[in-house]
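Problem: given the chain below (206 residues), write out its structure.
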Amino acid sequence: MQNGKDTSGFLVQATTLAVASMLVRVMGFLYRIPMQNILQDEGTGIYAHAFNIYLLFFVISSAGLPAAISKMVSTRLAREQPENAREVFRVSMYLALVTGSIGMLVMYFGAGFFANILGSDLVIASIKTLGPTVLIVAILSVFRGYFQGMGNAMPTASSQVIEQGFNAFFSIFLAYVLIDEGFEIAAAGGTAASGIGAFFGLLVII
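Solution.
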């Protein structure tokens, strides 16, 4: 009977995350169409280059955190060690705060360095605005992993959808509002939307 409940719970979690992932992908596809029209090729190129730098720091600070934390938490709960599960959360949060903060600072103060590597000063503003996103997403990843380990996929799913929804809206809105300032500033507005979306996703999961 217990195995049946475990299987049912797993299926509910998997389905919830799958539906959320599908919604996130659909929104991500749809908002890039007007973004491309607003930023055109030049602005889109700036946007993409900045995101390549962001992805590097995302991998260092956050990639794999939710899955690893989920596994450790679920294992300790299965052994009836709730305090150890909470300790996993505390240690993981400390690690995320350290790595996320370092990533944020390096992106902000090292934006000029990365711009030189990419061969364009136009990406500096976009790289700087993406810096805080590294820290926010790192923190968000810890919460997501913790809840998944507790067998509750809803916080992760809802925060992902909210994050992408706000990201999509503000990417289009800021790019549109700032386009008269030039492609460099409009692209920076689009990248700043990633941090805004992540922030609202964090508020939801908290």
